[in-house]
Amino acid sequence: MDLIEHFVSGKKFSGNSKNTGKVFNPATGEQSAEVKLASSDDLNKAVESAINAFESWSNKPPLQRARVMFKFKELIEKNFDELTKIIVSEHGKVYEDAKGSLTRGLEVVEYACGIPQMLKGEFTENVGTNVDSWSVRQPLGVCAGITPFNFPAMVPMWMFPMAIACGNTFILKPSEKDPSCSIRLAELFLEAGLPKGVFNVINGGKEAVDAIINNKNISAVSFVGSTPIAKYIYENCAKNEKRVQALGGAKNHCVVMPDCDLDQAVNGLMGAAYGSAGERCMAQSVVVAVGNIADLLVKKLAKKVEILKIGPGLDKKSEMGPLITKEHLQKVKNYVDIGVKEGAKLIVDGRKLNLQGFDKGFFMGGCLFDHVEKSMKIYKEEIFGPVLSVVRVKNFDEALKLVNDHEFGNGVSIFTRDGDTGRTFSNKVKIGMVGINIPIPVPVAFHSFGGWKRSLFGDQYMHGPEGVRFYTKLKTITSKWPSGLRSDPEFTMPTMK
Questions:
Q1: CATH code, 189
Q2: C-alpha 461 chain-centroid distance
Q3: Where are the alpha helices (DSSP H) in 121-251?
Q4: pLDDT tens for residues 184-230?
Q5: 367 noted as active-site residue
Q6: Burial of 404 by CB count in 10 Å (0-12 exposed, 13-18 middle, 19+ buried)?
Q7: According to the model, what pLDDT value does residue 27 have?
Q8: Can you tell me the distance from the alpha carbon of 487 to that of 475, in angstroms, rounded to the nearest whole number?
Q9: Could you tell me if 262 and 297 are in contact, meaning their C-beta atoms sit under 8 angstroms apart?
Q10: Looking at the structure, do residues 115 and 205 belong to the same domain, yes or no?
Q11: Residues 83 and 219 reside in one and the same domain
């Protein structure tokens, strides 16, 4: 059986820990590999490597760092199919979905290629008599990223390309459930010309996470995962005087107005709720049906959920793959049980799905609830599975209040033909990312990603301009020079030296 090791100083690294975890193929339910779980000492070795690489890498001109990024982009494109299949084999999501998530990660690499422009500071001549002032953005040092299982390529690529392009070195701790893609990306980055030690991958669980939090040589930590863990990381990193962005859970609502294009809304909801088996922080898990649209909406949704094509990720006919683990599958089924007990009406029940030839896989069908109340557990908590809840409200104001009252504020969408409704909603809603007739409003790479309320701990979002600000510190310089000093003339074309 394959053993997945760490990647430190440009090569595979076994570490001194004897602890390992199991990696499964979710479609078959069979174990595919073992992964090394790092000790604190293993993490500290990676930090040493990153420290040693920092001085040289941070002093490289941004243009030279960008050229490595360009080569990395080229290698990702060249190995796109391989990387996509790695994602499918360990996470389970269908091929096209995995391909799309990798593309969204690649877009951040493309954005990072423009780092020379983004690191330019500001200059003011004569802030005082013969006094000039300017600002520069400089790298922080060693940065770390802790990423979830649901996007083994995309979420790490929201972090490390930006950090590294800004001149930092980086330690990635991916999910131990699907670590192989991160290791392969590290190998490709090395092939692109990235110096050894600039990008390191450490696999592990809580011990590795706590080692990251407590290591004084790590300057900044980026995290994506559940809200309780996000809060834990935020609080403890802050105690250790680290810069931190910790993205937590979500309960994304989709408000469906009576005037909307209902077929467009239903099609959008199907992809947003059941794509990636609902294992997305931007999944639409609550439909807010406004007025008299509810009955027809539920009827149309039910028909589509019942015929949802479920199967292994590499089957081109599959629209939804398995969940990540047997334990998570059971957790999601338990939520459905709770919803039934709480009095919600289960319109479509996917709990007893059994795929011929894949009976050991971690599959379940799509579930659809109607008449869900805001007091119910299935409404309050993030389920992270293929479960869609319909909440009925009388009017727009009630829908807006429902969304704003929820503890999470990650993403929200509204489907309407009315411009005033769309504009008012986007202005008044207390959510970080808003879609108008867009089911999954994930910003592109040159904007920034992040939620409000208990969906984000920290001040700055991921990638885009906010990503540059997070991975750099601002320095402002004011200068005055004595007069009379002159240099000899140069007659050659000036070049970067």
A1: 3.40.605.10
A2: 11
A3: 154-165, 180-191, 206-214, 227-239
A4: 999 999 999 999 999 999 999 999 999 999 999 999 999 999 999 99
A5: no
A6: middle
A7: 96
A8: 28
A9: yes
A10: yes
A11: yes
User: DSSP alpha helices (H): ranges in 366-429?
Assistant: 377-380, 396-405, 419-428
Q: Note whether 61 and 496 are within 8 A (CB).
A: yes
Tokens read off for 390: 């319909």
Same domain, 280 and 149: no
Residues 277 and 230 occupy one common structural domain? no
- pLDDT tens per residue, range 240-255: 999 999 999 999 999 9
Q: What is the pLDDT of residue 8?
A: 97
Cβ atoms of 468 and 162 within 8 Å: the answer is: yes
Buried b (16+ CB within 10 A) or exposed e, 53-75: bbeebbeeebeebbebbebbbeb
Positive or negative, the Cα torsion across 355, 360, 366, 368? Answer: positive
Give mean pLDDT, residues 14-28: 95
Distance CA 119, CA 136 (A): 7
Q: For the domain that residue 411 is a member of, what is the CATH number?
A: 3.40.309.10
Cβ within 8 Å of residue 226, ≥6 positions away? 248, 249, 382
Classify 434 as helix, strand or coil. strand
Domain count, the chain: 2
Which one from 143, 181, 254, 281 is the annotated catalytic residue? Answer: 281
Put simply, whether the predicted model's pTM sits higher than 0.85 gets the answer yes
In a shared domain, residues 282 and 198: no
Question: Both 174 and 234 in a single domain?
Answer: yes
Inside any domain, residue 165:
yes
Would the pLDDT of 497 be above 90?
Answer: no
Domain, as residue range, for 414:
252-436
Gap between the Cα atoms of 337 and 357, Å rounded = 26
Residue from 297, 223, 225, 228 nearest 258 by CA: 297
Token pair, residue 481, equals 């020079």
Structural domain contains residue 489: no
Which residue, among 157, 142, 168, has the nearest Cα to 102 in the 3D structure? Answer: 157
The residue assigned the tokens 């409704």 is: 421
